[in-house]
Amino acid sequence: MLLPIRWKTFARDFLIIQVGFALFGISIALTIQSNLGTGTWSVFEVAIANITKLSVGAITVWNGFAVLVVAILLKEKVGWGTLANILSIGPWLDLSMKLIPSVKGNLILQSAMLLGGILLQGIASAVYIGADAGAGPRDSLMLAVHRVTKLSLRLARAIIEVVVFIMGWLLGGPAGIGTLVFALLIGPAVQWAFRVFHVRPHQVSEETQFEIEGGVE
User: Fold this and answer.
1) Domain extent for 45
2) Residue 2 included in any domain
3) 82 vs 98: CA distance, rounded Å
4) Which of 60, 79, 157, 195 shows the greatest Cβ crowding within 10 Å of its Cβ?
5) Cα of 134 vs its chain's centroid, Å
6) Is there a contact between 21 and 7 (Cβ–Cβ < 8 Å)?
7) Where would I find the H helices in 150-204?
8) Cα 28 to Cα 174: distance, rounded to the nearest angstrom
């Protein structure tokens, strides 16, 4: 099921969404190269990249398609931005990984990279979601699980994140204290960025928005 395309604003939306994806790729690279531990999905994708010898960006693309297939099988609506998300963030991530050096033995710089990556990812999320061109594959999966199981959005996302983290950790992904810091701070970072950029996606219903803001456990 596809969301309608707004052709009148497509060029502007595409430019905005690419800025968001570029920032997102940079944010992931910062957390990975900080060597303190990264987000749950990156723990899994770096583990797969190490096993397959493919780039992290390439694994991000393939993983995005796999997640999207599951979301579509669960009859979740997707937009052109969902496909753009899958095809764009991986290449931006690979480019950022080449430009941002891996840092070890410098806790101050590593911490700055980790926290900067988390803040930047919050901003990136607000930028690309604000284009209202469809949720990313992972968000689409969260929405699908929420709709099918009737679990709260937070619980649905938490279950997905825990499962992905365990798989990544068992496969030798870069889990660490930074992973816990990421889990604790990414939500507030996204919420702050949404407020700053006045992001309220049109496709989010009043009930869902109420739940996202903490009205439903």
Assistant:
1) 9-212
2) no
3) 25
4) 60
5) 13
6) no
7) 153-170, 177-196
8) 13
Cβ neighbours around 143 below 10 Å, total: 22
Query: Residue 7, exposed/middle/buried by CB under 10 A (0-12, 13-18, 19+)?
Result: exposed
Full-model pTM: 0.84
The confidence score (pLDDT) of residue 190 equals 83
Q: How many domains does the chain have?
A: 1
- Which residues lie below 8 Å from residue 36, measured CB to CB, with a gap of 6+? 110, 111, 114, 176, 177, 178, 181
* Any domain includes 4: no
Collect the ranges in the chain with pLDDT lower than 50: 202-217
Residue 217 lies in a domain: no
CB 43 within 8 A of CB 163: no
What is the pLDDT at residue 111? 97
Q: Provide the token pair at 3.
A: 């969301």
Phi, psi of 198 (to 5 degrees): 55, 50
209 C-beta neighbours (distance < 10 Å), count:
12
> Which residue do the tokens 């990264």 mark?
38
- Three-state secondary structure call for residue 86: helix
d(CA 159, CA 65): 20
